[in-house]
Amino acid sequence: MTEREMYDYLENYMGVSEETLVVVAKINGDNCKTYEDILYVLTGYSDFESYMEFEDPRSLPIFFPDHEED
After folding, report:
1. pLDDT category, 52, cuts 50, 70, 90?
2. Which terminus of the chain faces fewer neighbouring Cβ atoms within 10 Å, N or C?
3. Which uninterrupted H or E stretch holds 5?
């Protein structure tokens, strides 16, 4: 996932406000690690792929089109 896809997922699917995302990105930088840190605080998962695999399988085709579902 790109930084933008992570940002959009956090905002649109996880309910994180745009203001929160902007503030955290200004403090920690606009990068994948920052958005994975936010995901970790919210879910306990350290990366989006693990989160989507175990918690939100409907998202896999959207963000990981090469992923094969069981």
Report:
1. confident
2. C
3. helix 3-12
